[in-house]
Amino acid sequence: MWGSFASRYHARLDPGRRRAGVSSQPGLRAVHDDIERVLISPEEIRAGIERVAGEVTHTYRGTDFTVVGVLKGSCVFVSDLIRAVPIPLELAFLSASSYRDGTTSGRLDLSFFPAEGEIAGKRLLLVDDILDTGRTMQALVDTLMERGALDVKTCVFLDKPSRRLAAIQPDFRAFAVEDLFVVGYGLDFAGRYRNLPYVGALRPALYASAAPARG
Ligand code: IMP
Ligand code: MG
């Protein structure tokens, strides 16, 4: 009985979801059910992280540096990334949201920030889930430099270059994506879907009536 449900369920999935090993327990609503298609599978994510981790390692070998994760979106990426970087590093987090208020600066709300001793005189690698308009990252880089960082580089899991409004490019990026709202692997919609092990596109009906949460 379970077997036949599983094969019927599997038959509903598109090839991308099947490749990603997506399945859910019968009778339980799973986050996977809200995904229209998988854009980046867990295997592709692993390969992308290995590549970026190699670049980060090459850049910082022999140098003290601190990885600064931007909460909440970077939590999944940063934890996989640091485990693929085999050189000494320190880890810090900050929490920020910037308003899309029509200005080019974008006002930054810092609800949580590292202590001054973790910034001043340090080489920082700022890690976020996605570089979209770039306003958040630009404001964070400026703020960290103002607070005395020696150097700030940026690393993002996803880059949406077509949406850029601020003059910033990531120093490291795992993947470039088209202009499409995506969820999973840390990226949320209205606070949910961060726990998907792949990057996917939501069924359009789900976000037709709501606005995404920030962070
Ligand atoms: P921006 O670069 O200042 O426009 O903002 C980047 C932030 O917007 C990210 O850290 C995410 O929290 C959010 N964001 C932008 N695009 C997406 C998306 O496609 N899915 C989920 N969150 C997104
Ligand atoms: Mg974010």
Would you state the CATH class of the domain at 41-176? Alpha Beta
| Average pLDDT | 86
Q: Classify the oligomer.
A: single chain
How far is the N terminus from the C terminus?
42 Å
Strand order of the largest sheet: 4-3-2-5-6-7
Main sheet makeup: 6 strands, mixed
How many β-strand stretches? 9
Q: What are the bound molecules?
A: inosinic acid, magnesium ion
- Tell me the structural class: alpha/beta
**Low-confidence parts, pLDDT < 50 over ≥5 residues?**
1-13
Evaluate the radius of gyration. 19 Å
What order do the SSEs take from the amino end to the carboxyl end, as H and E?
HHEHEHEEEHEEEEH
Q: In the CATH classification, which architecture of the domain at 41-176 applies?
A: 3-Layer(aba) Sandwich
DSSP helical segment count: 6
Briefly note the CATH topology name of the domain at 41-176. Rossmann fold
Spatial shape: globular
| Fraction of residues in β-strands | 25-35%
User: Which percent range fits the helix content?
Assistant: 25-40%
Q: Can you offer a commentary on this structure?
A:
Helix content is 28%, strand content 26%. It is an alpha/beta fold. The chain has a domain at 41-176: Rossmann fold (3-Layer(aba) Sandwich). The protein has a 6-stranded mixed β-sheet. It has a 3-stranded antiparallel β-sheet with strand order 1-9-8. Strand 5, helix 5 (135-146) and strand 6 (151-159) form a beta-alpha-beta unit. Helix 3 crosses helix 4 (75-83). The longest helix is centred in the first third of the chain and has 19 residues, at 42-60. Mean pLDDT is 86; it is low at 1-13. Bound molecules: inosinic acid and magnesium ion. The site of magnesium ion (MG) has 5 residues, from strand 5. The site of inosinic acid has 18 residues, from strand 5, helix 5 and strand 8.
